[in-house]
From TrEMBL:
Name of the molecule in the record: YlbF family regulator
SUPFAM superfamilies: YheA/YmcA-like
Organism: Cohnella luojiensis
InterPro entries in the record: Bact_com_dev_regulator (IPR052767), Com_YlbF (IPR010368), YheA/YmcA-like_dom_sf (IPR023378)
Pfam families in the record: Com_YlbF
Domain of life: Bacteria
Length: 163
């Protein structure tokens, strides 16, 4: 793993026009990173709690109830808020979802999933910003913290898209 902290030759010198890319080295390092992630504590925790959720009888029962409640709500939603069962169906969805969130294996699984997602996002940002800070990196966060051209903030890029 020590080799993962080394930079690629082109990165050490800065990106130059028409610099040859050693794709074999790049792919090799990508596979090393992938293997490191698969063997990480984050991945082990995620896989463990995912298995626990899939084997939990209470979760399976609540998941079936949740699917039925969502189906009932979707049926009501076709007619909008004025459907006589709309609020009751929505309340049922939230109630079953709340019960699911109270199950320890589900809570732990969601926490492990969130940790893994955060790690992968950090890695994606690190890789993208090693090339350029203007590269947009997809994120699952519904409330992005970044600012700049692509995020509704102000910048001085001169693209005309900000002001």
């Amino acid at each position: 793993m020590a080799s993962m902290t080394q930079t690629l030759p082109a990165a050490e010198q800065g990106v130059t026009e028409n610099a040859p890319v050693d794709m074999a080295l790049l792919l090799s390092r990508a596979f090393e990173l992938g293997d490191s992630l698969k063997n990480s504590e984050f991945a082990a925790e995620y896989v463990y709690w995912k298995d626990q959720v899939s084997q939990d009888a209470e979760v399976q029962s609540l998941t079936k109830q949740f699917a039925k409640a969502k189906e009932k709500f979707a049926e009501c939603e076709r007619f909008g808020r004025f459907h006589p069962d709309y609020n009751a169906a929505l309340d049922q969805v939230y109630e079953v979802e709340g019960k699911l969130d109270q199950v320890e294996s589900v809570r732990r699984y969601k926490a492990a999933e969130s940790s893994m997602d955060e790690l992968l996002n950090d890695i994606s940002r690190t890789l993208a910003y090693a090339v350029s800070h203007s590269i947009k990196v997809p994120d699952n966060d519904p409330n992005p913290k970044a600012s700049g051209c692509g995020n509704g903030g102000s910048c001085s890029c001169g693209s005309g898209g900000c002001g």
